[in-house]
Design goal:
- The protein has six helices and 43 strands.
- With about 950 residues, it is mainly beta.
- The longest helix is centred in the N-terminal third of the chain and has 15 residues.
């Protein structure tokens, strides 16, 4: 099951055998951690406020020492990344830094960076900033990549949860810690700037941050103020090439088969040679070949303001304001060649069709009289999110502390989308669905009977306009929350501390959108020349595909969209945002938790036991803006629903100190995920058949969705030795109930009101799936002692995550909508194996790090239920190589060089069988950054 467990274990044991048993070096405990200090030989609890020795080690090794100590001191199972210095987080963004944390994988590298974080394969991660749960607009989470790394002091990854922490996020919690003025002894100023070169767009972009902090003794007590600002601009360019979806075609006439087979089957339909539908032989062939060039510019402004006041030794007040913004403008140039026309089918048969041996799956052929379209897609998106917090903490007595906080959040996310297609029909297209290890090829054929070169896709005389889409949306959310937490040191039996608290939040979420579309045919040669452009250099010569084509200029389309809205005859009402849902949710929580500390068999046993209650109630209004009355008049229908849920979530964590440096942990915790707001919609929305697949798509929500819950078990062994060195291993298990999965049913609906009902595949979510995840984590941080002076400072950070997962996915008959069983397969996003290896050199004024990560193939998602190939979309193994270097010119001035995505791989997807059903091939940007940082 875990085929490389022995290799990873051998690496860790080899490191352990080299380690010399030495006195441990104590590093600064996290100021936010409320756990007991490290054990003494007496075995009794020590005061959490006890002073700890501070070993001042700078650079990469210093940051790793602090991260190791955070892991050691926290009762929960937690890993961390600590910034090497102010404004020097170890990567361009937090997501890429997290890929070196044991048990964390990143994916969805695009737009110049990695975007998605999973913990032990699961992507449902709750993000908090200084312990406060944050969100974007109407979502229940935030994109971690949107938070600039320059604002951060540390990031802690909690794989278990105490009862005092928010319970959402079945995968885990990522807590981002920003700086506060009382973190520094005196004043602090730091300014950092980078120039980042991205190779595909061939641009240099700025990355700037600055921090200023000070504290003063005044007549009203100690006062501190801090301002931290950041601005990042990124130009990016991503390119992808793909074969289209697979459909069955009758051998006798080449017509596409739209019935008689189970649409959207998990494992596709019969691929054996000679297979039949309705008694007639069929072939499985791709319906298209297409390529995309996505280029754009993204900006992320952010700031953090922190004010602190300590009027006396027993009280402290903090006000914080946190803002992160997101601006993105992109242009996607698509070339789409349909190759499923039945025209000239006999000529296709005559010219020859190549199938994969022993199958009815077409590998290569020539399609004649082929319809093509290009699409110039312009997108614009922006986010503005604010968090304001005011809180205080008070030492009521030496044993009793209270803290409380009021937090207000407001977040808005807006999008604009304009796209226009061009169309042409060409003489012929020669295709090979899998010409080179998953990469397809296609070439246009010149018509020998015409003067016009029909193989030249750059010639505007071949093209005319077609569909025009003009869409937009706006998501708005806000939240007002109050928390209160108390802790009381006690001396009762084995219990040393009691903690309790409550939380109340009122949240609103509103979505509005607009959709307009139409078709009109205007020759490109009749357009202003600025309205179209010609691409060049597509896919860098890595595939035998067209490298250039004529396409509508998305930027100019967006600028002149009002002119085209009028020309295409859009109704004004379709261009106005209309509300689709308005939700008001109340959530409350309370917890009671106790720390214990005792001896068992002469060894210290400590831990926490607690229980948390979570309740929510939501009042929801959903709007159907295309409903029709009995006279066929369009109006807005409103549906109102209420949800009410409550859960009791126990937690138990204990540590057994086998030696002062060797600890075992056990944890049982429960976590929860609330349904997404949009999934609760009771209306059904229909999209007609736009690509002639034989049926349209429909989607709706389910107001009866329940939260997803997970029961979590963790067992760890950790050994700490030398100065910041450690070896650790964890076995864990997750039992997940009520995963939300979309059922698929075939339904009939009269979309255009002409009295004729058309077929639609309806997608509606339900708590219809359960999952099981088990695995091992192994990791080590090791800096050898006693090396020659020139090697002193060499170290390594190693980790391995080995997973086994299963998920029961319901299967439905597309003709009747009835459930016909379950398919059991890997959970989405879970790689069986992932590894990280970091080689470090940190000495005097110089530090460098080479980081390599690798993860095995994984089931990423399910495709739409329209096609005949298997639905599961798999990612091939992914790897990344990054490099960081810094040199201290002086104590205050540092220069740095960073490089990401050095391997410049082609990232690939496939449908279950990588040979028969290859899918998308992507190439992404490499970055090279030169920076300078000055602090005093």
């Amino acid at each position: 099951m875990f085929k490389q467990t022995y290799l990873a274990s051998a690496i860790l044991l080899a490191l352990a055998s080299q380690a010399t048993y030495a006195a441990e070096a104590e590093a600064t405990q996290s100021p936010q951690a409320e756990e007991t200090a490290q054990p003494s030989s007496g075995g009794k609890a020590q005061n959490n406020n006890e002073e700890m020795e501070i070993i001042q080690v700078q650079g990469i090794r210093g940051s790793l020492n602090k991260a190791v100590e955070l892991k050691r001191q926290n009762i929960q199972v937690v890993d961390a990344i600590v910034a090497e210095d102010i404004g020097k987080f170890p990567d361009n963004n937090v997501v890429e830094a997290l890929q070196r944390v044991t048990g964390v994988q990143v994916t969805d590298r695009a737009s110049g960076e990695a975007n998605v974080v999973s913990i032990r394969g699961l992507t449902d991660v709750t993000t908090t900033v200084n312990g406060r749960q944050i969100f974007t607009a109407t979502g229940r989470s935030v994109a971690i990549a949107d938070i600039p790394a320059a604002l951060l002091g540390s990031v802690e990854v909690f794989k278990t949860r105490s009862s005092s922490q928010v319970a959402s996020g079945i995968a885990g919690q990522i807590d981002i810690r920003t700086h506060k003025p009382f973190d520094f002894e005196d004043s602090k100023v730091s300014v950092a700037a980078k120039g980042i070169y991205s190779d595909q767009p061939d641009t240099i972009d700025p990355n700037f941050s600055a921090l200023a902090s000070n504290r003063w003794d005044t007549s009203i007590g100690e006062v501190g103020a801090l301002v931290n600002v950041s601005y990042i601009r990124t130009n990016y360019k991503d390119e992808s090439v793909s074969p289209g979806a697979s459909f069955p075609y009758f051998v006798e006439d080449g017509t596409r088969i739209t019935s008689g087979w189970n649409v959207g089957s998990a494992h596709g339909i019969d691929t054996s040679a000679g297979a039949t539908i309705d008694g007639k032989e069929y072939l499985l062939a791709r319906d298209a070949m297409f390529g995309n060039i996505l280029e754009g510019e993204r900006e992320r402004p952010a700031f953090n303001i922190s004010l602190q006041w300590a009027p006396n030794d027993s009280s402290e007040y903090t006000f914080e304001a946190f803002y992160n913004g997101y601006r993105n403008e992109s242009f996607n140039s698509m070339l789409f060649s349909t190759v499923d026309s039945a025209a000239n089918w006999q000529q296709v048969i005559q010219d020859g069709i190549e199938v994969y041996d022993g199958t009815n799956v077409v590998k290569s052929r020539t399609a004649y009289n082929a319809y093509n379209f290009s699409s110039g897609d312009h997108s614009k998106a922006s986010t503005d999110s604010y968090v304001f917090a005011l809180g205080g903490k008070w030492d009521i007595t030496d044993e009793f502390q209270l803290k409380s906080e009021v937090v207000y959040q407001q977040s808005t996310f807006e999008t604009e989308f304009a796209a226009m297609r061009g169309q042409t029909t060409v003489y012929g297209v020669a295709i090979d669905a899998n010409a080179d290890d998953g990469i397809p090829s296609w070439n246009y054929l010149d018509n020998p009977d015409t003067v016009l070169d029909e193989s030249d896709m750059t010639n505007p005389a071949l093209w005319e306009t077609a569909d025009f889409y003009d869409n937009g949306s706006k998501d708005e959310g806000d939240s007002l929350s109050w928390t209160m937490d108390g802790s009381l040191y006690v001396d009762y039996a084995i219990f040393t501390k009691v903690q309790f608290g409550a939380r109340y939040e009122k949240r609103t979420a509103t979505n509005s959108n607009r959709t307009a579309s139409g078709a009109k045919n205007i020759a490109y040669t009749d357009l202003d020349p600025s309205m179209y452009m010609v691409t060049s250099g597509f896919f860098e010569g890595r595939a035998n595909v067209p490298d250039s084509w004529a396409v509508i200029n998305g930027y100019n389309l967006y600028k002149n969209r009002s002119q085209f809205e009028s020309l295409w005859g859009f109704e004004q009402s379709s261009l106005v945002l209309q509300k689709t849902f308005d939700i008001s949710e109340q959530a409350w929580a309370g917890y009671l938790m106790a720390d214990f500390d005792t001896e068992v068999f002469g060894k210290r046993l400590d831990g926490q036991v607690g229980v948390r209650y979570e309740g929510t109630k939501a009042d929801m209004d959903f709007f159907d803006n295309k409903a029709k009355d009995e006279n066929d008049n369009v109006y807005t229908a409103v549906s109102s629903d209420t949800t009410d849920t409550s859960k009791v979530l126990p937690s138990f964590v204990m540590r057994y100190w086998l030696m002062d440096d060797f600890v075992a942990r056990f944890a049982y915790t429960e976590t929860i995920r609330q349904p997404a707001f949009a999934d609760l919609n009771s209306f059904t929305y229909y999209t007609p058949d736009l690509t002639q697949v034989g049926f349209g798509s429909a989607s709706g929500g389910n107001p009866d969705l329940e939260p997803v819950t997970s029961k979590n078990y963790d067992f760890t062994l950790e050994y700490y030795f030398g100065n910041g060195n450690s070896i650790y291993g964890t076995y864990f298990s997750r039992d997940i109930e009520g995963l939300v999965y979309s059922s698929l049913t075939r339904t009939l609906y009269d979309y255009d009101g002409d009295g004729i009902e058309e077929a639609y595949i309806l997608n509606r979510p339900g708590n219809t799936s359960n999952g099981k995840l088990t695995g091992f984590e192994l990791g080590a941080v090791y800096f050898p002692e006693g090396l020659p002076s020139w090697l002193d400072g060499v170290g390594t950070q190693l980790s391995a995550t080995l997973l086994d997962s299963s998920q029961d996915i319901p299967e439905f008959d597309s003709a009747t909508g009835e459930q016909i069983g379950f398919t059991t397969r890997d959970m989405f996003g879970v790689s069986d194996e992932s590894y990280s290896a970091v080689l470090i050199y940190d000495k005097d004024f110089f530090s460098a790090r080479m980081s390599y990560t690798w993860r095995s193939e994984f089931l990423n998602s399910y495709d739409a239920a329209f096609f005949a190939m298997p639905r599961g979309i798999y990612r091939k193994p992914e790897q990344s190589l990054d490099f960081q270097l810094s040199y201290n010119i002086s104590d205050d001035l540092v220069v740095s060089f960073d490089a990401t995505n050095l391997l410049d791989d082609v990232y690939q997807e496939y449908y279950e069988d990588s040979t028969l059903f290859n899918r998308t091939n992507n190439i992404f940007t490499r970055t090279f950054a030169l920076g300078v940082r000055y602090s005093f």
